[in-house]
Here is the input.
Amino acid sequence: MVKKKEVNDSSAPETVLEVSIQEPTPNTEPAQTDAVESAPVEEAKVSRRKKITNVADLPGVGEKTAEKLKEQGFEDMMAIAAAGTGELAERADLGEATAAKIIQAARDALDMGFETAADFLVKRTHIGKVSTGSNALNTLIGGGVETQAITEAHGAFGSSKSQLGFQLCVNVQLPPERGGLGKNAILIDTEGTFRPERIKQMAEALGIDPEQALKNVFVARAYNSDHQILLVEKLGDEIRKRNIGIVVIDSITSHFRSDYLGRGTLANRQQKLNRHLHALQRLADVHNVAVYMTNQVMARPDVLFGDPTAPVGGHILGHLATYRLYLRKSKGEKRVAKLIDSPYLPEGEAAFAVKTEGIRDTEV
Ligand SMILES: Nc1ncnc2c1ncn2[C@@H]1O[C@H](COP(=O)(O)OP(=O)(O)OP(=O)(O)O)[C@@H](O)[C@H]1O
Ligand SMILES: [Mg+2]
Here is the structure.
């Protein structure tokens, strides 16, 4: 088998920087709107000062800045309120003081600040779970791949990290009673390993129209780490417009690995990766979507006993992923998933199978 690992995409066109998600064929339901946008008009009337609901109306935001903010993916109040000062300043060409003022105004307008534990609980009741296709694997991760969270799967080649991503793109389309969210999927392919044929096969196996299933998966190829970052920065709008329930990134680290070779650039790489992951976490929170990302493993020559591999991305990924799975190959179609460092769930393992019809339980 010829397997191209460690793909260095430096040959890929650097200029392709526009968001290139395929054309929509929206899957029925209207996109969710933000709480702010749907706030009743009465509420605005009774409040002492008129409530700002539009980015363009924030103090310090002129026409040009509004345009720039939109261009950079800060298209709603929540995106601005959740941004960091340095990040907003850099991306919208603003001074730090202005950026801080704009962020503060957005936060005031949204009544951010403290949430009671009760509010927090309400938000958590909106968490959806996408079935992996295997009951054993679902149980291991608390019922399925969660919205408002990042789930990472790392493992050697062939451990079915990508297959699980494809399956989630199909399963998210199922109605809740069948383990889905009745929504669509976005897949960011960084390694060129996306296979629409697999989506078709998996959909057929579930009895859903394969052609429709394909149209409900919006795929973008990321050509390098900067392109990948840019795609994610612009994703908020796409998520809303296309009724998205899950964002799959396959893989999160490959470009960062090849774009930042050598020790000297490691700090720079980690800083970018950190910001990228925060952007993803924000998307998950703000839009109530699940984020599933695959990750490679690297050899650790310093380990003499035990497992000589470690996930790429270091502590940053470890801290930001809510759920981490280590996948490994077993006999034939059997795979084993190990849940690592979960703050909420006990460590454990689950066996599952990767079959022609997709991810399933292993036969006992
Ligand atoms: N049509 C199919 N029918 C059955 N099994 C399949 C099919 N397609 C792929 N597989 C299984 O999935 C495995 C590949 O898994 P996958 O591509 O998800 O690996 P990966 O962990 O993403 O690896 P890499 O690190 O190379 O990206 C194959 O080894 C094969 O066992
Ligand atoms: Mg893969």
